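Following up on my earlier message about coproporphyrinogen III. Here are the inputs again, as you asked, copied directly from the submission form:
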Amino acid sequence: MKRVAIVGGGVAGVTAAYELAQQARKGVPLQGVLFEASTRLGGIIETVHEGEFVIECGPDAWVTEKPWARELAEELGLADEVMPSNDATRKTYVLIDKKLQAMPDGMRMMVPADLDALDQSELFSAEAKRAYREEPGRAEELRAAAPEGDESVAEFVQRHFGDEVLEKIGAPLLSGVFGGDVTKLSVQAVMAPFVTMEREHGSLIDALRTRSVAASKNSVFTTLRSGMGTLVDRMIAAIPEDWIRLSAEVQFTSCGEEGWLVGTARGVERFDALMMTAPVDVACSLLQPIDAEMAPLMEMDASSAVVVGFGFPDAAKFSIPTGFGFLVPPGSDSLLLAATFVDQKFEHRVPQGGRLMRAFFGGKAAERLMRCGNDETAAVARMELARVLGPLPEPQVTVVRRWPRSLPLYAVGHLERMKKLDSRVRAFKGLWLLGNGYRGVGVPDLVRDARAAAREIAGE
Ligand SMILES: Cc1c2[nH]c(c1CCC(=O)O)Cc1[nH]c(c(CCC(=O)O)c1C)Cc1[nH]c(c(CCC(=O)O)c1C)Cc1[nH]c(c(C)c1CCC(=O)O)C2
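Thanks, got it. Here's what our run produced:
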């Protein structure tokens, strides 16, 4: 019987335990033990149901283009629950000069697939529009200028489209997906397809034009009708109960002749494999004594998020623009990072006639709010939303969540560092590093890697 320790009960850890349990059910002689420091599983996936309000405390969806979360949902019998975002009303706004300005239609991140739609846009000055129009003509120059190695997202976007595009949509889009500073984020790690386009075509706009035939009609986001929490709940239901240890903080791990040792306050256990899925900081300190060279490769910045959900019973009492929500560029006088108009993004999230909004704080604002109570945090969120949207009525439901250092920042050189980390990890038999610090930040990436690792362990 092969014994596998899974350290960390977030999305990656639960998925790994689920996949091992599936393999055991198929007859592979496996036993997993899932160690979770807190009192609940799921990590930052958490859905709160209050009356008919479905309030996501963490991710509200996955990116449709990545198939792995959907495949898992279907396998878990949730095919009927899989639900697209309402892309007929999809619009994302950016807060510029205290006003919400719509991002033009047909954008792939900061690259327009349709230059004519750009002309209608009030978001950009004539100068920025000119920079866009001129980019295809600079293809040769841009291809020649493409660096061999990695660079920051800021350098990359600036080279193609200039400062205004970087500031108005580059920076806010990246902070709405990767939570970080565009001058530090690695373009190779977070915008890989665009790096390839630059190498092949020079011009990103030209590259998109040749691909646009294949552009999918699918919605951008996919979720589950009853919330993302259902994905975790279904997996947990398929994991043997005696595999799960809650309130079981792992205090040390070590590796010796006879395998892996994992120590908690309740004692030390021996395992044949160790799936380390804890947050990067925790993983780093647990692995430091095992391999001093691994730890420095795992040192990375991470951003914290504070999420506040507000449910209102009567949407008619105030109006908001049509769309999914808005992003706030760095340097704005708003404390917000972003906000989602949940009832417009998804069906079935509110009682009839209700409205649901989520406010996000990141960076310094999140660090400060991390130390405030729920009431104060909610008051700040409501005030900041009101500064953008106009006066808001008293919410019927308020949910506050803090996710400290929840989103690791893939800095310039990330892929190179991960290659080195990978070769260190491979030097240890039965060790796996999983989670959002390494090979992707989205739920689908975590699901893909955790399942692949569990299958490999089972197949060995
Ligand atoms: C602030 C923030 C959000 N979401 C996120 C943050 C970062 C802060 C943090 O968690 O610490 C994180 C995020 N957002 C997204 C992912 C998944 C990325 C992936 O799977 O590759 C992740 C990890 C998808 C997304 N998130 C967003 C995009 C861009 C969508 C577009 O092109 O319009 C993507 C791919 C934009 C976004 N993102 C957010 C809002 C309110 C919006 C705009 C409106 C909305 O849709 O709700 C919230």
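One observation from looking it over: The mean pLDDT is 96. Hope that helps, and feel free to reply on this thread.
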